[in-house]
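Notes from the pairing session

We agreed to fold both candidates in a single pass and log them together. This is the raw record for the first candidate, unedited. Please don't reformat it; downstream parsing expects exactly this layout.

Candidate A
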Amino acid sequence: MESTIESMKTKQNEQEVAMTKLKEVFHARLLGEQEERKRQVNNLKQEEASRLNHLASANERIATLSQELEREKKLVEMFKAHKDDLEHVITKAGEDRKVLEARLKEKMDVVDVLNDKVSLLSLEINEKDKSVEKLTLLLAAKESECQTLNAL
């Protein structure tokens, strides 16, 4: 019986040693897994921080591009308004040109009429000059005749 008890005690000690070894192995494995989890968490945190930095950079770039786009839109609107103004000025200038061309044509027509009148008046003056010359010659002849008659 004592040998049985001794055998049981030995068995119990062996089991306790085995249990202690199992606990140590389990504890070592658990620590290893915890370290691995910490490393993975740290890697994930670093990756998250990196992605957040990239996101912040992208958001800054988006904001910058949005501001630039707004400036470009304002410039486009300004150029459209300027273009509309210029088109209006060009249209008005075209209308003014037509009016001025019509006035010029009227003035040219008046000049043509006046030139025709000047030509007619010049012809009349020439005819009158010829008449005056004839009358002057006739008068001179009559005066000479009168003097001849008076002298007799």
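Candidate B (folded immediately after A)
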Amino acid sequence: MKSTFINFFLTSLLLFGTGLSSCGQNELSDLIPEDQISAICIWDKSPHCAFTDLVEYKGTVYCCFREAFAHVPENAAEFGKIRILETIDGEKWESVGTIFDPNYDLRDPKLSVTPDGRLMLLYGRYLPVITEPHPWTMVKIISDDEITNRQLDTRDSQEISIENNPGLSTYWLWRVKWIGNQAYGIAYKNGELPILVKSTDGINYTLVAVLDALGNEADVELLPDGRMLIVMRAQDGDGFVGYSYPPYNNWEWHETSTLIHCPAILTIYDTTYIAGRSSWGTMLFTLQDNDIHPYALLPSVGGDNAYPGIIFRDSQLWISYYGMSDTGISIFLSKVDIESQPSGQ
């Protein structure tokens, strides 16, 4: 396992800087200093490791991601599996195991902790030749015994249901976040308006609102002022920032001024951070004035990248993401020092 720290400015300026317009350079003029960011490669044992998430569970940090031969499989032999790693300090990582289904390509795993203290895995199933709507979103509760024994599998995985409606249940529920005793998430289908859904068990969801913003990958966050925030990738364009007070069915939308894909949101010290893919690479943004503003460009060597997870631990933001390495597409962890706080929203 590689443990080499990456020099931030060499990677970001040499590899991304040549493609920046003067406008882009101005947008990146307020990035935090190099010495507030570190990065380490935590997994590089397959040609294409991607689509990460991160969670802290019972004092241990877990990172999940898809492990495969390519971004999209051409046949069943190239189907991806889900690998889960664990760490205490963010430096030494061990594999808990993999989840594999010979009938599907498993994609975009997400980890969360349920209100009753269980570790929940959300993931998508995909087929390169679609005979009926895919992917289908699946949920699995990972037991402590599975972690201890290093024996993960798809047993006990369940397909989600949205309003007991087979049509809605084929939407992709890409990420969920537990707010109080409810899991909230955005489910989407290409060409259709996305929907906000909620659940008390992580499996059976009800419709909260149809969202009047044509997007797909999204995250939600409860802001200190009581509003719910959605940051969403646009199906055509840069992205969206949306707000609503309870019951979250009346949304105010703003188009972002810069590209955002695969957002992951976390609010710390009244500042809301958004990690995701930008025009320059894997970026950490802050939410300000109904828009997202670049805060830290995470080390990467360009090309295919991002799909982050984010947690707060030891006065730092820990951000998992994928990017190119000398062995292929690998998984990285950046730690960002945020003791010096930016202005909030």
